[in-house]
Write a structure and sequence with these properties.
Elements: E1 7-10, E2 13-18, E3 23-26, E4 33-35, E5 40-41, E6 45-51, E7 56-57, E8 68-73, H1 75-78, H2 80-87, H3 91-96, H4 99-115, E9 121-124, E10 127-132, E11 137-140, E12 148-149, H5 154-157, E13 158-159, E14 164-170, E15 175-177, H6 179-182, E16 191-197, H7 199-202, H8 204-210, H9 214-219, E17 226-228, E18 230-233, H10 242-254, E19 261-264, E20 267-272, E21 277-280, E22 283-289, E23 294-296, E24 299-305, E25 321-327, H11 329-332, H12 334-341, H13 345-348, H14 353-357, H15 360-367, E26 373-376, E27 383-387, E28 392-395, E29 404-405, H16 406-409, E30 413-414, E31 419-425, E32 430-431, E33 446-452, H17 454-457, H18 459-465, E34 482-487, E35 491-496, E36 500-505, E37 529-530
Parallel strand pairs: 9-17, 25-37, 26-34
Antiparallel strand pairs: 1-2, 2-3, 3-4, 5-6, 6-7, 6-8, 9-10, 10-11, 11-12, 13-14, 14-15, 14-16, 16-18, 19-20, 20-21, 21-22, 23-24, 24-25, 26-27, 27-28, 28-29, 30-31, 31-32, 31-33, 33-34, 35-36
Length: about 525
Amino acid sequence: MKRRLPVIEIEGTPFYVNISRFALVEYGNPENEISFLHMKDCNTNYEFNYNPKTKNLSRGKENGEAEIPVKVPRLGVLDPQGMMESYNCTLEELKTRTDYGIIVDHNKKIHNRRVSGELPTIDLAGNIYEVLYEENSLRPKGWKGETISLYDYRQSYYDEDEQMFYLYYDTRKNKVVDPAREDSWDKIEDHIMVKVRDVAALDCIKSSEKEGNAYTGVIFCNVQLHHVAETIPLKKNDIEDMESRKLREEYEENRKDGLSTIKILGTNFIVDVVNYQLRERSNESNILYFRDWHEVKNGYGFYYDTKLKNIPKESFNPETTHYVEIPEFVKMAPLEVAETAHISLQKVLQMTDFEIMVNTYMFKERMAGNIPDLVFGSGSQQQYFVDLERGMLRPYYPKSVEPILFVDIQKYYDPNRDCYIIPYNTTTNALEDLDFVKTKEIPKNVGLFAFPSLKRMDPVGWNLLHGLDPRAGLKQLDLHVTFIAEKIGTLEISLKENTVQNARIVNKHEVNECNNNHLQTKKTNKSGRRLK
């Protein structure tokens, strides 16, 4: 199992300290990162303005964004183990030297070559190009060829999320081509795709100088003077050729007023791929909610009442109620899915709803053994692993903190909210198992903390523990790497019937409702019709 990265909390949101990416990476959302390149290096700490809404750097009050000043410690304090592993330094050096001193020494030779004027280079399919930061271009080095202006390809071939160009390269003519402009989608015999980072990443030292902090470029980037672009061989179905464009046109023709619909026993429903539901076309307030469906092979099934034009909730009339099955959203409305997910129609048609609706990166991480964390309280450094297999909240630092057994907190489970509300001692970092019958008041160092049920925190682990498909129900649950056990305020003690221990919240803050809409994992034996 990979080493668990340290965590720092910023305005209630936990972030991984990821030295390899030189960034703070949001828990459960690896696409959101705050790069140290964009922070002010103050030697003993870093400073930046934070926007709690975007959970990233603030663009300033002049742009209408919140601006909260934040200070974070240096990397030698945040992740000493990571620094020692990455830069071959000692623990004593981390105590006495700055991040700059340690990392620059490690990268000094390469850094000096770049500062002396040597340009970074990149290998594109065996051809070497120099990186020209000021011109935002790649120039052939030592051979005659066309300079690649990355400006020309930013709009159509740049992925903002990955900060990566996906360029088509002609290996016969040794140049980048533009199939969209040249109408050459079907001419791929000599083409490959190359993945090229932007010039700020290829020449991070120069980039940092331009941002007003030359030192930061040495510290917080993978200092290299030679890069090799990853190549991706192309196949006929990897690009939108004439056949795929014709397919798109057919789907667009079948849409009514620009909307994909499906007919269920005589009634047309609009396929909503944003909220994952079906809305009656002639009465959009009549909605078939995804939570009421169950999964079947290649789609979903449910009972449908032709009189109600909906799913019966309590009882059903056998004369008007029928069991029906519908395809997945990627089949019902592939164009809308492609537009919403910002991917090609061709790719959508090769995918499943699971790949669209579930964070597959998080799923793979969990299947690899990375279990979720539970952090007690905003700003708290006490973390636990949610270890369903061992039946406990297992402390991150087991030598100083005792585990919290699930059997010991079961009596604190609130089924109405699907969460636990436990008394936790923030001084001893332990469960304070109070006798609510005799206790008149809660000690000052004990708080009432709420966190979701075990199934909600680790649905994959829950499925595995109970012998279910690990993917069951994940379309309706968000996967998270960490959870915050929030302190929910003062409480009154009351007794329910046979000494059932119950805590009632009396402050203004409410515990979020935790009602899940679970998918039925058992197949229905009823026969029915499949809609296509």
